[in-house]
Each structure stands twice: as C-alpha cells, then as structure tokens.
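Readers outside the structure-tokenisation community will struggle with the description of the input data as it stands. Showing the layout once, in full, would remove most of the difficulty. For illustration, here is how one protein appears when written out as sequence plus structure tokens:
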Amino acid sequence: MRKITGDEIRFFDENGYVICKRVLHDDELECYHRESVRLIEEIKSEGPADKWCARGPEGIPYYLTYLHRHPNDFSLRLLAHPFIGDLLCRMVGPDFVPLYEALVFKLPGNGSSVPWHRDGLPAPNKERVFNIDIYPDHSTVDNSCVWVVPGSHQWENEKASEMIRKGREEFHLPGAIPAEVEPGDVLLHHTMVLHGSTVNKSESLRRVVYFDNRAFNWNEKYGWHHPIVFEKRCRLYQYALHHRKQNPYPSDDEVFEYTPPNGMPTWNGSDPIDLHCPRDETPAG
C-alpha cells in the first residue's frame, strides 16, 4: 500500500494542504462509487438518510453527517485503509483517534456551493489538525472542486475573517488555487486553511468522504469533546480495522496495526459498537 512521503508532509506544513496521488485502488473505488450513489439516491428520494443530510446556501442537499451510521459497505473499510493509519501515526501521533466522518457531494447541474471558511475546533498551539478528504471522482474547476489559499492556515484570525468576508462577496480570492484531484487521490487540508467551492453547474457528480482526527492528548489539553466520545470512537476505529481484515479488497496487501492510546479502551470483539458516536455526547444523568 502507498504511504505518505516526507516531501508531502513538508508541503502540507508549509501550505496547509497537500494532494496525495493514487491512494485507492480500482476495487475499492468501485465499491465507494456504488455505495455512495445508493446513499445519495436515498437522500434524493427523502429516505432515512435524508434527515441527516445538511443543505447548502442554495437549499440543496450536499453533506451527509455521521456516514458510518447509514448502512453501507464502504465507509468503515475506507477508514481502516492502511494509508490513513500510517499518516495519522506520523502526522498526529500514535495516540490518534478518528472522530467524525461525512459524505459530501455536489449534484450535477446545480450542486451546492460551500462558502469560504475555516473548520471548527482549532488547536491553539498550532498542532496539525486536519481533515482527510478521499475522492472517488475527478474533482476539477468545471465540477466545482475545492479551492484553497495556500499558507492561510498560519494567518491570524483577523486577517482570515476579513478574507472570508471578501470571499463571500466575490468568490475568487487573491492567491487562491483549485485543488484538482483524480479518482483515488487523497487531499489533506488543515482545519485553519481557507477553503471553499462554487456551485457545480457541470453534468458530473462530485463526491468526497471527510475524516476528522485528533490526538487523545490534545483533547485532554483542550477539552473539545467529552472523554466518552473518544472512548466510543476508539472502539469504533478498532472495529473498522477488524472489519477490513475480515472483508479485504482483492488489492489489499497489508493491514494497519493500531495500539489504543493509554487510557482508551481495547475492543475485544464482543463489545457493542456505536456507529453513530455523536461528537456532542455526554454521559446520561
């Protein structure tokens, strides 16, 4: 399996994003295509997934939250991809815990825009907090790829807020570039880098799965989420790794071995798994 390179990590640190080429193989892409289209059709027909799908500024569905909780055959195996575990160990630390996932899609002809923004829950001490964005489609200027402002992850809030304001009046910001990708590519974007996209007016569907990840020790420091969220998510990641081992793709040639962080539970194979694991969960009572 492919691994992220040192040059790619250095590019990310300098620019706040990096595109890693040709990570997914065709067999995994085929499953991703099939299952994501089925979920999108479920949303379009106002099926069960629709109530979990956010709308963009134009009122168009585009953001399916908590992807794992919607029955499918690809998202847990995607999370367990060895490329993801390896890069998180090296870029976040061995005490990483995957915390959230979403399927974002731009429907053909009138796919939702995403205004310029930074993502939430920043790290005050400039830890590497980023999303892993996994693409099954060509994402180009024509079908409304994400644009980024390289280096903006290092800007002070005042400058970033002013540029976001300008970008919501006129999309094209100085220095912004399109992050165009091909099927099977992975884009890493820092939560503080300015990014956004326009309406998709092309005839092609554009999809991406986002994984958000944090280190356990960072949460102890900043208190983003209740510890129960990390506990459940840690079990869920171990379950995902087990699931991929039991249901490998033909192209799989290795597995990622994960050791839960000190203080986090070890999933023993009979523990119940919460496929939802809401980020705002607190203990009952």
Summary: The helical segments are 6-15, 26-44, 75-79, 82-91, 157-169, 216-222, 227-246. The domain at 6-246 is CATH 2.60.120.620 (Jelly Rolls). The CA atoms of residues 120 and 191 lie 7 Å apart.
